[in-house]
Each structure stands twice: as structure tokens, then as C-alpha cells.
Amino acid sequence: MRMTFRWFGPSDPITLQHIRQIPGVEGIVSSAFDIPSDEVIPAEAVLELKAMIEKQSMTLDCFESIPVHDNIKLGTDDRDRYIDIWLESLRNVASAGVRTVCYNFMLAFDWLRTDLSMRLEDGSKAMQYQDAEVAKMDMTGDIPAWSQKYTPETLAEMLKKSRAVSVEQLWANLEYFLKRVVPVAEELGVKLAIHPDDPPWPVLGINRIITSMENLERFVKLVDSPNNGLALCSGSLGANPENDIPAMIRRFGGLGRINFMHVRNLKHTGEKEFHETAHYSPCGNLDMYEIMKSIHDTGFTGPLRPDHGRDVWGEVRTPGYGLYDRAMGVNYILGLWEAITKASL
Ligand code: DNO
Question: Ligand 1 in contact with 7 (CB < 6 A)?
Fold first, then answer.
């Protein structure tokens, strides 16, 4: 595997110089964050990003994400126009030499938490999700990671349209998208990586499908190609205690269908309730040793990044994406990796 770190570009309070000082980080995961899903990501923007990163002796390993326009997920009549835009972005990203591209197929919004700064026992803060709280949330304005902002009117309309998409329609819309984009990815030598739905269950009556072992099996069969792979996120899938993450890694890594790894930990606190934790296994419910061991045993060579961290030492940060806790995550993950690698020699 290749250790990478997510960077939100020049406006990120964390700089490339900071990231470079975390031992073991070789690559950067980034994107053109200011370009909406109905516009093409220009090749120059990707080249500029790449040059900044290479100047700090790292490489641009993965584009996370090229956002998929909602009309593609809704399956509207004009979806081909948006798929064309997506493909044009893909070509531009590939032309800069980036070989891994992440995206998601969550309708209306990206990942969701009901509390961004829950205080843990040790005084650090972490993000929390409680299903019963979702309906009470104000989802207008700035929500972390969402590629769009909603007003009360646009939100109501989007919720209505999204709720009308059945599970089978959503699968069909995803299949339609994949049948157009995977052949191009193959031609360009780009590995696509779908991010699981976070949390992995319907939210506000909107269906979600990239959620379980069974559904991942269905996903990989939609288009059977190594370029049509997964961004296996331990925390997103792990929010459902029924999901056995090491088993998923062994299954899909074994098939050569994991193209990107997100590694983080969390604690289940009730039915459809959890909060995020430090990466260290005893802090949460996921066994990081088993996760890293399965990544190792399946011979994974793609990019891996520590995912969301807590807010520690008073750091002001993009929710989930501070420097300190993710840097601790990197070194814990690399410690496990070194031990597993040496023990297997
Ligand atoms: C959350 C991230 C997601 C991910 C997208 C991929 O922290 O893992 O926002 O980038 O879902 O499209």
C-alpha cells in the first residue's frame, strides 16, 4: 500500500509542508474543490495541484472526488450531458497522470453527522451520528463535504426528488453511469473507486445502496472490470455492526477490486448511532490490526489514507480533517503495517 493524506488544496489551513513532516506519507489525495459537479475540472487546475505537491516531494495519487451530478443519480433525461462533463473531467485528471479517482453515489448529500464536536471523555472532540437527530437538523447552508449548498426551497425539492428513487432505480442509474464511464477509465488506465454510503442505511427516507457485503457483491458485478472498484472505507461501512470489515477486505481485495482504502475507527453507541474515535483499536469497535492484516494479506498496492480524526489539542480544522489526529493515525497504521510485514517474512 501507499500511505497518502487528504489535502483540501491551497485554502486548507494544513499545508503540504506540514503533511510532508509526517513520516511515511508519500502521496496526496486532493481535488478541485471549488468546481461544481456541472462543470469540467480543467486540466490546468490538476496540473497546478500536481506541481505544488511535487514541489514538496510528494505525488498526487488520487482525486477524491470527481463529484457525480445529482441528475445522474436521479436518472433524469439530461443525465448524459452530466456524464459527458464527468468524463471530460476524468480525462483531464488522467492527463496529469493521476491513476485513482474516487466518487460516490449518495443521493442529495455526502456523508452526514448530527454533531460535529461531541466531547469525548479525554476532552477531545469527535463527530457523532444519531439517526433520531437527523430530522431535527438544519441542512441548509454550509455542511461539511457536501458539494452543494441548499436553501430551504432547494432542499425540500431535492428531498422530494431523491425520495422518489427506489432502490432498484438507484441500482439502474448507477449501472447506466458505470457502463458509460468504466470503458473510458479502462482506456485511460484509471482505477475508479466508489465510496460507500455514509452512514450505510437510508437517511431521511432516501435510499442508499453501497452499504453491505451483499450490495458490494452486486456492485462489482455491474461492470466486471478492475477499473470498476471500491474505495473501501472502514468507518462508513463499519457504522453498521453487521458489516465485517476484514471479511470485506479479504473478499474484494482478493478479487482485486479495492482501488482505494480509507482507514478509521468508531464506536457503536446504539441502534443507528455511533461516534468517531481515534484510530487505535481499543478506542473503538473496529479491530485495526485485523483490518491492516487483511489489507496486507490481499497484497493491496493502492493508495490508503487515514480517515477522519478527532479534534485534539484545540486545533481549528475542517470537520474530521485536522492535522494532529490524522497524523497519529498515519503512524499507528504504519506501525501495524511494519509489524505485520516483518512478521510475515
Ligand atoms: C468523507 C469522505 C467523503 C468522500 C466522498 C467521495 O470524509 O470520505 O466525503 O470523499 O464521499 O465522493
Answer: no
Which pLDDT value is given to residue 287?
A: 98
pTM reported for the whole predicted model? 0.97
Give the number of domains in the chain.
Answer: 1
Q: Is the CB–ligand 1 distance for residue 320 below 6 Å? A: yes
Residues recognised as catalytic:
195, 233, 262, 307-308, 321
Give the whole-angstrom CA distance, residue 253 versus residue 250: 5
Nearest ligand 1 atom to alpha carbon 68: 12
Domain region containing 69: 2-343
Distances (CA, A) of 320 to 36, 118, 141, 311: 22, 12, 18, 7
Q: Does ligand 1 have an atom closer than 6 angstroms to the CB of 195? A: yes
3-state DSSP assignment of residue 201: coil
Query: pLDDT tens across 140-159, in order?
Result: 888 877 877 899 999 999 99
> How does DSSP classify residue 311?
B
Q: Return the CATH number at 63.
A: 3.20.20.150
Instruction: Give the integer Cα–Cα distance in Å for 321 and 328.
Output: 12
